[in-house]
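User: Can you predict the 3D structure for this chain?
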Amino acid sequence: MPPDLANLNNEAIAHAEVGLWKDAHHLAQQAAALNATTGNPTVRLNVGIITTIAEGRAAAMLPNTLLPYVFYGDYAAATAYMAGHPVEALFLPPDQNPLIVGTPAEGWAAAMLARIQSETLPALIFRPDLAGAYFVRGWAGYLQNPESVQARADLQQAAVLSPTETLFLQSVAYLNIGSADSASATAELEAIGRTIAEYWRTNGPDTTYQMMVERLRGDYARVKIAPLALGSSLVFCGATATTGAC
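Assistant: Here is the predicted structure, written as structure tokens:
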């Protein structure tokens, strides 16, 4: 298999496994175009699975509900939706919050906020540059506990990564969050993320990679690192990514 096709296949799977379905879909379509001449059946199957799930999640998005944006991994759209509300309203308690009251999440706020935490962390481990994911995770953490150091760190990190994003800057100012809030609380997560992502891209999902993920699961017990139910059906390809033949 051509290396560029194997890389696209593997990147699409990796993004799908951490819930970044919009990006996974885009990568899968690139792989499909490149595979038009190669005709590799494994890539064709992977593209079909990712496309079906991604398009289903995209179709499930509703105009007044945050969680489907998270399930699709479209954090730019999620924060654009959030930006349609005044900052002071965004950080109201769940029983007064416009992102919960009057939406399908009403009555299920605790479950929704917990699910946001579990969905965003694997995405940030793999892509620690996602400012929108940091903001959504910080918002959920703040609603769970307004005194949370991690929530404040996440919100600050969003502003650091996207220093021109009005929503992030207004939120940090409104909550009186300073740069000191983010420095230590995000360092460990970023270090873990860089280590795992760099190892995967070099060696593929081998036994050592799986051990790293399991260690992370132990450190963040509430997190399911690979939320993809059909993960065993997706096959990594290439000389160094050895879970399956292509």
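Residues 217-232, 239-244 have pLDDT under 50 and may be disordered. The CA atoms of residues 104 and 175 lie 27 Å apart.
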